[in-house]
Amino acid sequence: MAFxxxxxxxxxxxxxxxxxxxxxxxxxPCSPIEIRCSQPDQQxxxxxxxxxxxxxxxxxxxxxxxxxxxxVYFTLYGILGVDEKAQLLITYIWQNYHWMNExxxxxxxQCGTNKISLPKEKFWLPDIVINEFMEExxxxxxxxxxLYSDGTVHDAQPVRIVSSCNLxxxxxxxxxxxxxxxxxxxxYYALSSFDPLPTAMDIRIFLGRPTAQxxxxxxxxxxxxxxxxxxxxxxxxxxxxxxTFFFTDKLVFNIRVRRRATMYVVNLLxxxxxxxxxxxxxxxxxxxxxxxxxxxxxxxxxxxxxLLIMNDLLPVxxxxxPLINVFFSLCLALMVTSLxxxxxxxxxxxxxxxxxxxxxxxxxxxxxxxxFLVCMPKTTRSPTHQEPQTSSPMTKSKSDEDxxxxxxPAEEDKALQELKSLSTVLQAIRTEVEQQQKGTQSSEEWxxxxxxxxxxxxxxxxxxxxxxxxxxxxxxxxxxNQ
Length: 482
What we know:
Layout lengths: L1 H24 L8 E2 L6 H12 L14 E16 L4 E13 L4 E2 L1 H4 L3 E5 L8 E3 L13 E5 L3 E13 L11 E10 L17 E5 L3 H11 L6 E14 L5 E13 L2 H20 L10 H18 L13 H29 L8 H14 L19 H9 L7 H73 L1
Parallel strand pairs: 1-4, 2-10
Antiparallel strand pairs: 2-3, 3-8, 5-7, 6-9, 7-8, 9-12, 11-12
């Protein structure tokens, strides 16, 4: 008999264990557990919820094969700054999560309220993180959550986000940056590394509010009036299905912000345009009577000091070179070029008489083509009329007064010698005058070459300043139209 009892007990024990495991893992009806309150007050509701608090370590679902829907939205409260060098966006948001706790449900009429605030330590919390986080959240923590009568849990907290962002400052200061905040879970994914087929996920993330409403409320409550302005917030759902590793949800928010360009236009672009315009009007100074080079050198020194002072306002990054840096470099290069051109003009005015004649290719390229282009044609000199070589009036009168037959041979030889010596002197004077006339013509041609180059650089200045003003206006208008 004892042997039979032992056999029965040995058979019953496995059956009971199997039955218990079947009851535990058997899918239960998907309905919340009803909470009964003894009185319609918060104390009785809290007492009735006490047994449920013991289940805080597990995901609040009756069937472990079902997933928990997490509703996510936030309000952008402030844009604290952008670090171009470190490629970081610093924002301050109010973050909101909603999910269903299937272990909880009560009648608001019986318990006296439809919601209650309780400590977070008493509930299961989802591990929703932001992938772009680069620093620890330094915002104050909120220790409570709201629990509603239908089992909905609302978790809200402020978050200071230092997120990584691929910043493009090519059009600085008229740039528009687009940064992302990706919400997803790191722990609760359903596909194991050893399971080749994807199964149902533990957590799915959904957008809690329309993005238009998120953008409107963010613009309404935003208190920072700094360098950046919020344009819009959009969101999209990403279902990442990697059959090798995991299957998870991602909710990506795209935040578009625009830099306020007024300060940079007033402090950087307008002074630079003023200095380059003053350098433009310096071409109107006559180089032969005014030391134009010293004036231009003063402008270059002033522009260099201006760039050194304003260097802190320019972004520092290694990805791309902003257009404004190219603009400043071109302005400085034009100023240096105009100074070198002024030195060339001054040298031509002072030493052109000692130069060799202008080569033929310079005459064709500069005096004809470029001179016609800048409306400064080559000046032509009227040919000098050469006087016929005649004897001096004194000699003529002498020959008229003294006929040849009345002169002595000695006087004729003496007069002939004087005429020969006078002819030699006149020939030397004529040669010197002709050389001086050729040198003067060559000098004038070199001076005209310098003036044509001066006029050409003046035109390039006008073209550069016009294009710069038009480009600044177009970029400014386009940045505010986007």
